[in-house]
Amino acid sequence: MALLTISDAARVTGVSRVTLHRYIKAGKLSRSADGTIDTAELLRIGLVLHPETVLQPVARQRDVTPPDTPPVTAPDLATLQHLLTVLQRELDAAHAREAAAQERETVLLQMLQQVHQQSQRLLDMPPQAAQDAPGATIGVRRGVSEGGTAPPRQPGTPYTDARGTIRRQILALLQDHPAGLTPAEMRTRLGSTKRLAQTCIGMRRDGLLRRIERGRYVAVAPG
To answer: Where exactly are the structural domains of the chain?
Structure first.
């Protein structure tokens, strides 16, 4: 005998599904473990089967796979190789952009350091020498280029030697600290607002200071 669903059993017997469910609930009609109904059970309770509508067991097996679904295939080796080539090209381009950015950063840092060193040298120079330095005083040069002249120094008025003052202060400070000091320590003790590293380097070049270790200076005793 064939196993039918409730819908198929209702069709072949001409009985509604509601009636079949009522028979099952009353215990008059039995169902299999999978919920189907054997045609023998339908005949047992006196229902009449219509032969032209009896479904074979295989007819209940419905293919749920769409017939027009294209098969899923893995990409071929050529496609994978092309993708790898494209990814490698993009990776190389990213590395090149990173290297160019690092090179620009290095150049900018060098330019900034050069400007800082030039500004530090101008700060350590006497006022008159700073005015004579190239590009030191834009206002003075602009007045000269427009036909004006720099204001003359009044007779009897000495120049303020800022570099000489800070150097004397450093030498006097190091006399009290024979073990030596770093430029940062000198700046703190003197209450200076500018860095003294370049000043110490210039004093060492002029034979006024001696470096005893990295970043630490002592005063050179007068010969």
So the answer is: 3-60, 83-117, 162-219
Instruction: Identify whether the C-beta of residue 126 lies closer than 8 Å to the C-beta of residue 159.
Output: yes
Q: Which CATH class is domain 162-219?
A: mainly alpha
User: For a pLDDT cut of 70, what percent of the chain falls above it?
Assistant: 70
List, for residues 74-95, the tens digit of each pLDDT value.
Answer: 667 888 888 889 899 999 999 9
DSSP state of 4: E
Q: CA–CA separation, 211 vs 183, rounded Å?
A: 11
Q: What is the pTM of this model?
A: 0.30
* 32-38 LR contacts (CB < 8 Å, sep 24+): 32/3, 34/3, 35/5, 35/6, 36/3, 36/4, 36/5, 37/3, 37/4, 37/5, 37/6, 37/9, 38/1, 38/2, 38/3, 38/4
